[in-house]
Amino acid sequence: MQSPPKTSRGFPFPFGPTEHPKGTNFSLFTNHAIAVSLCLFKAGHSTPLIEIPLNPKINRTGDVWHIFIYELPDDALYGYRVDGPNDPEKGLTFDNRNILLDPYCKLVASNPIWGSSPQKDVSHIQKGVVDPIEPFHWEDDAHPNIPMKELIIYEMHVRGFTQDPSSNSPQKGSFLGIIDKIPYLKELGINAIELMPIYEFNERDNVLFHAITGEPLYQYWGYSTVNFFSPMVRYGTGKGNLLNELKTLVKALHANGIEVILDVVYNHTAEGNGDGPTLSFKGFENSVYYMLSPDGHYYNFSGCGNTFNCNNPIVREFIRDSLRYWVKEMHIDGFRFDLASIMTRSPEGVPLERPPLIEAITEDPILANTKLIAEAWDAAGLYQVGSFPASGEWAEWNGKYRDEARNFIKGADNLAGNFATRISGSEDLYGKSRTPAQSINFITAHDGFTLADLVSYNHKHNKENGEKNRDGTNDNHSWNCGAEGETTNKNILALRRRQMRNYHLALMVSQGVPMLLMGDEYGHTKYGNNNSWGHDSRLNWFQWDTLEKSPEFFRFYKMVIAFRKAHPVLFRSKFLREGDVTWHGKEPDHPDWGPKSRFVAFTLPDPIYHYDLYVAFNAFYRPTTLKIPKPKGGHPWLQIIDTSNESPKDIVEEAEAKPLTKHTYTLPAYSALLLKSYWGKKSH
Question: Fewer Cβ in 10 A, N or C end of the chain?
Answer without folding.
Answer: N
